[in-house]
């Protein structure tokens, strides 16, 4: 198996990730209540108007530095690389989604902010320690080596446990960002939210079986 194929994630695995991400990203009651509040931090205001399109950074200051965005792009594309007609994660704005997510002022997002930022810092430190280069400058083989070490295993280094938790959460966010785009939805065969010229309703045999009609 060549290095490129080893880096790729099969679409069935990615679909499992997006299901997990969908559950993980649901807003708990406490967060929903928190979203009703006005946040006092500099640059934060009331909750956004969901009918308006905002530019990145317009709602609240974004978090990732240029170097961190570069590392996030490389890692996101290692998780979901280009595959035939389907573009790599970074081409669909996944890094922008992650930056926006971790920059939001709500409790879940601030928790993720700490994990993602520290995880990206760990990636760069580990890359420099092992390969004398930042993560964004590594070869595909070197990226693969580091990513493989982030998978949970009995031989996992103690100092890499938090990095493994970061990697798991980052994968969830990549999947969530990717598979909520039009291209990502097509990739997994999702056909919801499509306008219909007409709606004929459920078949009569289904209605009979359910007892709605006789």
Our Rg estimate from Cα atoms comes to 21 Å
Largest sheet: none
Mean of residue pLDDT values: 80
Number of domains: 1
Uncertain residue segments: 1-9, 27-40
Shape category: globular
Walk me through what this model shows.
The structure is a single chain. This protein has 214 residues and is mainly alpha-helical. It has one domain (3-209). The protein is 53% helix and 0% strand.
Topology at a glance:
Layout (H helix, E strand, L loop, with lengths): L2 H5 L3 H14 L4 H6 L31 H14 L14 H10 L3 H25 L8 H10 L11 H18 L3 H6 L16 H6 L5
Helix pairs in contact: 2-8, 5-8, 6-8
Summarize the structure.
The chain has 214 residues and is mainly α.
Main attributes of the structure:
214 residues; mainly alpha; single chain; 10 helices
């Amino acid at each position: 198996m060549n290095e490129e194929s080893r880096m790729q994630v099969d679409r069935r695995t990615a679909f499992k990730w997006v299901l997990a991400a969908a559950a993980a990203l649901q807003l708990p009651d406490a967060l929903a209540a928190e979203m009703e509040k006005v946040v006092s931090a500099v640059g934060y205001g009331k909750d956004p108007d969901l009918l308006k399109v905002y530019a990145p950074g317009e709602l609240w200051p974004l978090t990732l530095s240029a170097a961190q965005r570069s590392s996030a792009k490389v890692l996101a594309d290692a998780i979901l690389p280009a595959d035939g007609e389907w573009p790599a994660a970074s081409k669909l704005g996944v890094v922008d989604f992650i930056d926006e997510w971790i920059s939001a002022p709500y409790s879940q997002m601030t928790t993720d902010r700490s994990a993602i930022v520290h995880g990206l810092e760990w990636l760069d430190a580990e890359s420099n320690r092992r390969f004398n280069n930042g993560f964004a400058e590594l070869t595909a083989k070197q990226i693969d080596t580091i990513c493989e070490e982030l998978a949970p295993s009995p031989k996992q280094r103690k100092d890499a446990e938090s990095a493994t938790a970061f990697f798991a959460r980052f994968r969830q966010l990549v999947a969530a960002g990717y598979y909520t785009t039009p291209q990502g939805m097509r990739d997994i065969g999702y056909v919801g939210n499509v306008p219909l010229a007409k709606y004929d309703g459920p078949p009569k045999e289904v209605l009979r079986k359910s007892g709605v009609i006789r």
